[in-house]
Amino acid sequence: MKKILVINGPNLNMLGIREPGIYGELNYDSLVEFIREKADALGLETDCFQSNCEGAIVERIQQAYKKYDAIIINPAAYTHTSIAILDALKAVGLPTVEVHLSDIGSREEFRRISYVSLYALKTIKGKGFEGYADALEFLSKQSY
Fold this sequence. Notes:
- By secondary structure, the chain is of the alpha/beta class.
- It has a single domain (3-140), classed as Rossmann fold (3-Layer(aba) Sandwich).
- It is 35% helix and 18% strand.
- It has five helices and five strands.
- The chain has a five-stranded parallel β-sheet with strand order 2-1-3-4-5, sandwiched between helices.
- α4 (83-92) links the parallel β3 and β4 (96-100).
- The longest helix has 15 residues, at 28-42.
- The mean pLDDT is 93.
């Protein structure tokens, strides 16, 4: 069974409260449950992690080395600023899919830059929770 680490960055713990017109009205617990249900249906094991702290995210990526088969990451605001997260992903060398609830390409100019996309096998944006399902599906079909 493939083991996937799902990492969610800053403010995703505020889903359902923060800008529901952009991010939806469902809360973070609903997202975690959605991910687990989709993973189970695909025969994948997932662990979900969320942090508002860049260093904690970097440490969690490093801890994934030789423990997980792949990573799904929504770096949130760190998408546009964190070379450290990019470097950590490159260091562990795990297949990675980047997910964004909103379409960052059609939002403010600064949101169109993604450091993580320089490493990710695939970037999925603007599909809400379904983006995570697409990422799980994509990784379930990869051989590594």
